[in-house]
Amino acid sequence: MARKKIALIGGGQIGGTLAHLAGLKELGDVVIFDIADGIPQGKGLDIAESSPVDGFDAAYSGTTKYKDIKGADVVIVTAGVPRKPGMSRDDLLEINLKVMQQVGEGIAAHAPNAFVICITNPLDAMVWALRQFSGLPHHKVVGMAGVLDSARFQYFLAQEFNVSVKDVSAFVLGGHGDTMVPLTRYSTVAGIPLPDLVKMGWTTKERLDEIVQRTRDGGAEIVGLLKTGSAFYAPAASAIAMAESYLKDQKRVLPCAAYLDGQYGVKDMYVGVPTVIGDKGVERIVEINLNASEKKNFDKSVGSVKGLVDACKKINPAVA
Ligand code: APR
């Protein structure tokens, strides 16, 4: 059986880490596409030269031509520019919207059967635009946000309780950003919900609120430390978990920015919800009952995603 093919659109910080992880996990052969000639070729060769040391078999190539992603099984998109000082949110939106148009058309022409994972920010709007430009089925295009947000939540909880990250499970809903909705009553340590752990005296409601806020600000915390870029190790690991679930038909329950067509009362938008990812793409959207305050926070989050999508439609009416 031929190896699977993984195309990475964008060979920057996240793209390079994705390429390395895909090799270490032997998910398939990797093609890195970038507009900066030399970078994808250089990173591809560098990682390939590590393969004898780590003992993995995978072919690597770098390219500036979309035709080289032909037949990819998975496409992971990190192409775009980050927000720079003096740039408004709309400036960023305008630039990355243009990038999504190029990428969407490239995927439609050369890899229309791929499972596509978008990472470019602002995530929930960019994955929506990428789907529109590519014309791929909605269940084959998803955004990576929830796995990362819940991983951060899990990590902070494991630290708080001094337990293994393996025994912490966390649940995060909504858009990627300040309005994300970490759900404490569905987050557990060895199956024990967080509110019960408060009752057991393991932590306090105030500490949990602080951890929830730190989770919401998780991206900004890394930017504040790095100063010249944003997080890349954890975002790459998160997207690889999604790609692996698709490629191996693991049917993992993973929170993703998925297309909603009425679920959670939302239509024609991408928002972070729990999904089942298998070899058909997004095979199921898990619709849980929200209590009044969770619903209020979720609706606020949806409202902010809608604002971004509306801004995209205004910038480029062709995307609507
Ligand atoms: N087509 C292909 N690649 C592009 C394009 C384009 N039109 N425009 C820019 N790129 C490439 C850049 O050359 C760069 O190599 O995208 C890459 C982006 O890499 P980084 O700037 O290192 O960004 P990274 O940290 O990888 O984050 C990528 O993910 O989390 C989000 O906010 C983050 O939107 C950003 C994206």
UniProtKB/TrEMBL annotation:
NCBIfam families: MalateDH_bact, PRK06223.1
Positions of NAD(+) binding: 10-15, 34, 96, 119-121
Domain Lactate/malate dehydrogenase C-terminal intervals: 148-306
Family indicated by similarity: Belongs to the LDH/MDH superfamily. MDH type 3 family.
Function in brief: Catalyzes the reversible oxidation of malate to oxaloacetate.
This protein's UniProt keywords: NAD, Oxidoreductase, Tricarboxylic acid cycle
Positions of the Lactate/malate dehydrogenase N-terminal domain: 5-143
InterPro entries: L-lactate/malate_DH (IPR001557), Lactate/malate_DH_C (IPR022383), Lactate/malate_DH_N (IPR001236), Lactate_DH/Glyco_Ohase_4_C (IPR015955), Malate_DH_type3 (IPR011275), NAD(P)-bd_dom_sf (IPR036291)
Record-annotated active site: 176
GO MF, any single term: L-malate dehydrogenase (NAD+) activity
Catalyzed reactions: (S)-malate + NAD(+) = oxaloacetate + NADH + H(+)
EC id: 1.1.1.37
Binding site for substrate: 83, 89, 121, 152
Classification lineage: Bacteria, Pseudomonadati, Pseudomonadota, Alphaproteobacteria, Hyphomicrobiales
EC main group: oxidoreductase
Any GO BP: lactate metabolic process
Record-annotated membrane-spanning stretches: none
Taxonomic superkingdom: Bacteria
This protein's record includes keyword Transcription: no
Stored CDD domains: LDH-like_MDH
Protein name: Malate dehydrogenase
